[in-house]
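Figure 2 data, in text form.
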Amino acid sequence: MTGFLFEFSFWPAAPVWLLMIFAPGWGPTARIAGSPLTVVPILLLAYLPLAIPVFPELWTAVSHPDIDTFRDLTALADGAGAVWAQVIAWDLLIGQWIYRESRRLRLSPLLTGPLLTFTILLSPFGLLLFLCVRATRTRRVPRDEFAAASG
């Protein structure tokens, strides 16, 4: 069951990623990407079933973090699966923020799509790269035009 939940954890996130990358201008995409509820299926169907059986180890790892405690948690199949499901959920929320910010800044989907793809694979790098793009873009847009664009 653990292997299935590990693999399953990405499937509720995949449609949201696909919409943000391949249908960024479609009306429902903005509504879906604007909702933090997109992570609820991941949390309910993958994270909780993996985290609950290893809750004592999980609690120890987060309340007294050190590398050995975290290694002990991830050595457990359910522990590694819970951490993976958590990463999938947080990556999705980061991707949704990038999508919304890119729309607000009127970035081209041809730029945003690859940034989102990079974020799926290596979210810290994707986020850093997006923050650089965002900083460049916000410097070029006059403040009054920027305020009008954000609605």
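Caption note: DSSP finds ten helices and no strands in the chain.
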